[in-house]
Amino acid sequence: MNLRGLVSVTGKPGLFKLIGQNKGGFILESLDAAKVKIVINMSNSKMATLEDITIYGDEEEIRLLDIFETLKTSDIEIPAVKADGTTLRNFFREVAPGHDESRVYSSDIKKVITWYTIIKELPLFNEEAPEPLGEEQA
């Protein structure tokens, strides 16, 4: 799964693809059909790559990519985003066992479902992630 360059921006719905940088900030393009381009200034907005996002766990944090991989390879039925809290929580117990139920809210689960729905159709979803920069091949 190659989700490098896909980001979430605080206060903006959906996901964005990082397409460049200028002196005003980062240039992003929405992943929806509109393909809206925006410039995000890091002094007044927070941006997180999907590769770096983690979910609170009881013992250790759970990577969002691991949850997406579980969804991709399993036959777990994904509930509707508007499902009730119990349905969402039961679903998340299957895909993210060991998550901290007191710190992971229904809104977080809805966000994971929404993001997965957006990216599962992208070609990047089935590509291998490139090696991190600076690591040499043995």
TrEMBL record:
Residues 53-119 form the DUF6852 domain. Pfam families: DUF5606, DUF6852. Residues 3-50 form the DUF5606 domain. InterPro entries: BVU_3817-like_C_sf, BVU_3817_N_sf, DUF5606, DUF6852. This is Uncharacterized protein. The lineage of its organism: Bacteria, Pseudomonadati, Bacteroidota, Sphingobacteriia, Sphingobacteriales.
